[in-house]
Structure formats: structure tokens, C-alpha cells
Amino acid sequence: MNVETLHQQLDAWEEGRLTHAEIADLHHWLQNNPEAYMEQVDRQLVAALMEYSIAQDLRKKFADTPVRTISPLYSVKRVALIAAISLVIIVTGALVFAAQGGYNHSDIVADFSDAVAIPYTGALRGENSVAASSLQFIILLIEDGQSDLALIQLEDKLRIEPEQSNLVYLKGYAMFRNGQFQDALELFNTIPANDPFDFADDLRWNTVLCKLNLEFPVTNIKQDLDSILANPRSAHQGDAKSLNNQLGSFWYWMANLIH
Amino acid sequence: MEQEEIIGQIKAGGCGRQEALTSIYQEHAIRKAVFSTILKMRGNIQDAEDMYQESIIIMDRNIRHGKYVHKGTLPAYLCGIARMCWLNQLRKRKRTEPETTATDHILKAQVPGPDHWLMDQERAQLLQGFIIKLDSRCIRILQLWQERTNMQDISEMLDLSSEMMARKLKYQCTKKLAKLIQEHPEIERILKQSL
After folding, report:
1. Which of A7, A103, B30, B114 is the most exposed place for a label (fewest CB within 10 A)?
2. A120: pLDDT strictly greater than 80
3. How many domains does chain B have?
4. How many angstroms separate the CA of residue B6 from the nearest CA in chain A?
């Protein structure tokens, strides 16, 4: 078998055109003929080079082929997208939570509905005067839900003693209980800070509650709260702290945002 | 393009093979799967692109040589090849950058797979330089033969008068190239390593 015939046989083998017997003959020939074997090795080297060349051509072709780009796992775009989606989920969740039961304003008002400071009367201090008993009676009327009646009695008393600050305070208290928060606030503001009955601390607290009921801006309410919190002797420190926390909470802010 | 159709076209060689390979290369879903595999194994976008191309090249070769026995889908097959290529690549990098430890756990966790076609830069440049010097007509006919293109088709594609002429030219080119390879021991050594 000359070299060209050997190549033709090898081509036929690669193309699958040889019978089993012919393949066996070819193998036998290659095994027993070193020159033929070397020819086969040469063919394999050429084939290897061609495989490399084919691969190179493919790489070039791929480089010129337009494709849709794929972003890296943590590209700026992808991270921003994930952050945006997360933010939307968090905000939606927070809004739903706030809408369904977070600290909304009416909840806070309800929490502090009984926290209004009762005016100081002599009766509470153990005085047994007619005046003290009379004021105590008015307070009982107010507590009993008869603020209208209490207010009539207070008007009578104020006609006689219009400057009496504890009467003014009591009237304000009655109005507060009667739901007249704006009137109550105005009355509380007329009482001088250096009042002899020393209502300042209670007045400041009641002012806060009036503003809370009137839905004043939180910053405004907080100014009054801060002055209470700054006073270590204030009797309303506990309530003021609690209210301050609720007004400063994220959920209150969220609830305000959607209401 | 259906999986069977792609495999059939690659086996048939010629233009159909080119089309099939390009369509795989452009298939976004397959790209995404392979890229995801490489990116998850600490590769970057360029690594993923390289591994994607290599996996298609290896798949092409395996189909042409009758070594394609995968029973699953082509994307899964390509992901498997890409993963193997990438591990080999990491091993090579590990050898050249001994301080790098970021990929250690990946390398230790995997079984090595041979891929002799991922040559290093120096050897690739040598082969490339060698190929450029060769007769382009010879390269073309031998490439087509290697791609398992039918001899009759080769004769038509190269504008030869007959299949017989194509066979004769192919023989002459093989001999010519084999002689050139023998004259370049470095090339011969690289090619023998790849066998």
C-alpha cells in the first residue's frame, strides 16, 4: 500500500465507508508498518491543528456576532433594582401596617384621654372650706359627664371672681372634658405662669393634650413636651415620655403620611 | 431551532453548522444559564463570555467526533462543559497566582476534567502565527474535512471540478502541512500535547 492509498483508506475509514474486515486489515497494516503508523500520526497532528484553527475561527465569528448583554450578578444596575424593589416592599408593608393598626393619631388621643390634669382644689388637699367643697362638687359634675351644668356654675362664680385662676383652670378643664379643646386651650393660655396656685406644670401638660386633640403639628406639641421632660420635678414626666415616644415613632409618621 | 436539528446540522458541517452554532451562541436563555454558572463560581462577565464560547467550541467538536452522548438538554450540557473549563482555568490561574485563595474552596470541591483546548496564551500565539503562514486554500479544505463536511460539498464550496479533485487536494495539503509541522518542532510538540 503506497502512501496515497493509505490516506485514501484512512479517509474512507473516517467517513465510515469501510467494512469491519477492511478496518481490521487497516489496523493490522498500521500496527505492522511504522511508516504507515507515522503517516497516521501526521494526520492526527494536522487534524489537531485544524481543530485549533476551527476553534479560532469560531471565536472570531462569535466576537462579531451581536448578542444581548448579560449583566454581572452584582452590577450597579442590578443592585439598584434589588434595592428599589426592596424599598417598595418595605414601604408597602409599612403602609399596610400603619393603615391597619400602627400608631395613628386617634389611637394616641385615646391613650391619653384620661390623662388630663385635674385642677387643684383645696378639697383635694384636705381643706374643708365651703369654697373647696363647691369646686370639688363641680369636678364631680364634670367627671359625671355633666360638663354643661358645671360650666353654668363656673360662669356664675367667675362673674363674681373673674381673676380667680383656679376657676379659670376649672372652666378650661370642663371645656376639655366637654370636647371644646380650642376654648380650653385659650383659657389655659390666659392663666399667668406665676399663678399663686402653681398650675404651671399641669397647665403645660393640659396644653399638650389640647393640642394633641386639635391635631396641632407634632413639632409644636413636642416643644411643650420638651419643657415638661426638661423639668425633673414635673408630675407628668411618665406620660410625657410615653407620648413623646409615640409621636416620634416611625409608625406614627407612616400613619400620618397615609391619613 | 430544535435540539435535534442543531445536532444534525453540526454533524452535517458546512453552512448549516455555522448557522446552528451561531444560533446557540445568540440564544439568550442558554447564555444566561452558562453566565450564571460562571458568575456564581466567582468568574466575571469576561470569564463567562470566554467559557461560553469555549463550551460551544467543545460541544461542536464532540458532536462532530461522535462523542456527544448527553441525554439531557443542550443548555445543561453546555453548562457542564463551561463549568469544567472554568475549573481548569481556575487551576491554571492558581498555579500562576499562588497567593490567591478566593477560589480554593471551589477547586477542592470539584473533580478535575481534561480540556486540552484551553491553551495558554503563549502556545495559542505560536499556533496562530503558524497558521497564518499556511496556504489559505489548504487550510480551508482541511478545516472543512475536519468539520466532517461531505467531500462532494467541499468540491462545490471550493469550486473544484470533482470530488476526486477535492480528495487529491486534501491529500496534498495534508502532506504539505504535515511536513511543515515536522519542520517546526515547537508546533509539533504543542499539537502532540493536545492529542
Report:
1. B114
2. no
3. 2
4. 16
> Which residue of A lies nearest to B188 if distances are taken between CA atoms?
A45
**Boundary (domain end) residue, out of B109, B143, B177:** B109
Which residue, of B78, B109, B140, is where some domain finishes?
Answer: B109
Of A46, A58, A65, the CB nearest to B177: A46
Domain span at B15: 3-109
Whether the predicted pLDDT of A163 surpasses 50: yes
Under DSSP, is residue A113 helix (H, G, I), strand (E, B) or coil? coil
Read off the pLDDT of each residue in A71-88 and give the average, rounded to a whole number.
Answer: 84
Beta carbons of B63 and B7 less than 8 angstroms apart: yes
Among A11, A53, A73, whose Cβ lies nearest the Cβ of B167? Answer: A11
Q: Where are the alpha helices (DSSP H) in B65-162?
A: 74-96, 104-109, 121-133, 136-146, 151-157
Residue B115 lies in a domain: no
Among positive and negative, which fits the CA dihedral B49, B50, B53, B59? negative
Residues B85 and B164 in one domain: no
Give per-residue pLDDT as tens, B114-139: 444 456 678 888 888 888 888 899 99
Q: Enter the ipTM.
A: 0.83
Is the CB of residue A21 less than 8 Å away from at least one CB of chain B? Answer: no
* In chain B, % of residues over pLDDT 70: 86
CA dihedral over A34, A40, A41, A42, signed as positive or negative: positive
